[in-house]
Amino acid sequence: MNTFIRTLKQCYLFFLLVIATNTVAQNTPHYSLYMLQQSIINPAALGSYNYLNGALLFKKQWVGIDKAPTTFVFDINAPLGKTNNALGLNVVSDKFGYTSSSQITVNYAYRVRLSYKNFISFGLGAMANLYSANLSKVPTKDANDPLLNGDIATQFTPNFKFGAYYFTDNFYFGLGMPNLLTNKYVASSINNYSASTSFDYNQLHFFVHSGWQTNLGRNVKLMPSVMLKQVAGAPLQIDANVQFMLYSKLGIGASYRTMGTYIGLLNIQASKQLNIAYAYNYHTGALSPYTSGSHEVLLGFKLINTTKKMIPVDCPHF
Predict the structure, then answer these.
(1) Which pairing describes strands 206-212 and 220-230: parallel, antiparallel, or unpaired?
(2) Distance (Å, rounded) from C-alpha 114 to C-alpha 155?
(3) Cβ neighbours of residue 33 closer than 8 Å, sequence gap 6 or more
(4) Is residue 206 a contact partner of residue 177, using CB atoms and an 8 Å limit?
(5) Distance between CA 266 and CA 173 in Å, rounded?
(6) What's the first-to-final CA gap in the chain, in angstroms?
(7) Residue 155 near residue 130, CB atoms below 8 Å
(8) Backbone angles phi, psi at 21, to 5 degrees
(9) What are the C-alpha distances in Å from 242 to residues 211, 222, 245?
(10) DSSP letter assigned to residue 45
């Protein structure tokens, strides 16, 4: 075990050395509870809500491995009066090893009515990326290593998101592009880093997600969903999910991710305005003996509008 951990640290150190010389900041964390707050992955999903809603999400990945990723998300959005417009705010804070990144995004969505119960929404997000790295704290045998004697001070880069979201009674289908631009942090000289932004089609990421719901009985609802995630430089990832909602109060479900991850889901509807969800990720493969898994918690809230609905459909919001 000690040999494996030392190897992990050596590999991670090499990763940091690459970061110090030429970093591409296109981080897209894996969320297991994204179906409960879809605006986290797709700004167009804002257009499917009749009311103000939001969520707090916390994820601790690879418990037992030092400096493993930790992610915090705050997401809130609301329709703008009785119009087809919606506005939202999304904040993500992510820490991995000796690096920290934050994304602050203002999202906008416009909804188009195709027929009485068929809608499509288009969304755009304007994002501010903040990235820093404490390279001087990386353990190394060479205390005078010039690449690790300094830190990367907080760097700012802009980016944009785009999404489309079709929805009707009991069904939705969405496409999200979380990074339209490529952000890089380059070492122009020792301990001197600069940020740049460009467009590179080969670096685009795509999310395709869809869900459906149906009643299995008077008090049981079946809610399956799926997401396909294509990230530049990585194989296609598929998340397949199923949730059973009992008495509109308790959701129990499971997911499988094609990276060899099995996920258990628990969703408690504490009231009409509040739900609490938990996901446990069990990882198979080389890391499984060294981590007890990953944990994710979501606190969702909504302020239901008691006036006439602008959207007369029951879109699955899980």
Answers:
(1) antiparallel
(2) 43
(3) 57, 265, 277, 279, 296, 298
(4) yes
(5) 23
(6) 41
(7) yes
(8) -105, -30
(9) 9, 7, 10
(10) G
* Domains of the chain with bracketed CATH: 2-303 (2.40.160.40)
Cα separation, 211 vs 227, in Å, equals 9
Tokens of 209: 């997600």
Rounded CA gap, 249 and 271, in Å? 8
> Which positions ≥6 away from 83 have C-beta within 8 Å?
none
d(CA 197, CA 159): 8
Q: DSSP per residue over 176-224, as a string? A: EES-SSEEEEEEEETTEEEEEEE--GGG--EEEEEEE-EESSSSEEEEE
pTM: 0.85
pLDDT digit string (tens) for 50-85? 899 999 999 999 998 888 899 999 999 999 988 999
pLDDT in tens, 108-140: 999 999 999 999 999 999 999 998 887 767 776
Weakest-pLDDT range from 4-13, 83-92, 130-139, 235-244 = 4-13
Q: Which helix (H) or strand (E) holds 8?
A: helix 2-21
Contacts of 310 (CB under 8 A, 6+ apart): 50, 79, 82, 84
Closest CA to 169 of 207, 129, 117, 111: 117
- What is d(CA 41, CA 73) in angstroms, rounded to the nearest whole number? 11
- 50 is written with which tokens? 């009749």
